[in-house]
Amino acid sequence: MNIKEIHLKLENLLKKSYSPYSEFKVACILEDPEGNLYEGVNIENASYGATICAERSAIANAVTKGVRKIVSAYVMTSSDSFISPCGICLQTLVEFMPANSQVVLFNNQKSYKIWKLENLLPQSFTKKDLLNE
Ligand code: THU
């Protein structure tokens, strides 16, 4: 799927964000190696700490469908800046994405910037650290 089609999908997905408290909308689309797409939005809660970010909502969607490898992440927010996924979401993405995978950040102005995951979260903690490799 090309970037214009992804952009259109993100714009529609962003409308599904449930964010009545912050009014900060986030949408995420993850792509597996076969090109299948998995969507997520941020879902807030009156008990604020129960909120889930769009990226982790998309990961939960993908992993529940049996996916174990993600090659691209596309994230759009309602901001006119390019917003990085938060630390917890980056850590969650690292579990399933190779370090050099692309993370494409869209603002609300039809622009995007491409990052490598390893540049958004350098020196991340991975299963290699647990195995002492
Ligand atoms: N949010 C995300 O969905 N992803 C992030 O990586 C950062 C923050 C959401 C959580 C909350 O609903 C709103 O943005 C404001 O923090």
| Low-pLDDT runs | none
Name the average pLDDT.
Answer: 97
Sheet with most strands: strand arrangement? 2-1-3-4-5
- From the alpha-carbon coordinates, what is the Rg to the nearest angstrom? 14 Å
Strand content: 15-25%
Shape: globular
As a percent range, the share of helical residues equals 25-40%
Secondary-structure content class: alpha+beta
Topology pattern, helix = H, strand = E: HEEHEHEEHH
Termini gap: 37 Å
Bound molecules: tetrahydrodeoxyuridine
What does this structure look like?
By secondary structure, this protein is α+β, with helices and mostly antiparallel strands. Helix content is 32%, strand content 20%. The protein has helices spanning 3-14, 54-64, 87-96, 117-120, 127-131; strands at residues 26-31, 37-41, 72-77, 102-106, 112-116. It has a 5-stranded mixed sheet with strand order 2-1-3-4-5, with helices on both faces. The longest helix has 12 residues, at 3-14. The protein is globular. Tetrahydrodeoxyuridine (THU) is lined by residues 19, 22, 24, 26, 42, 44, 51, 53-55, 85-86, 89.
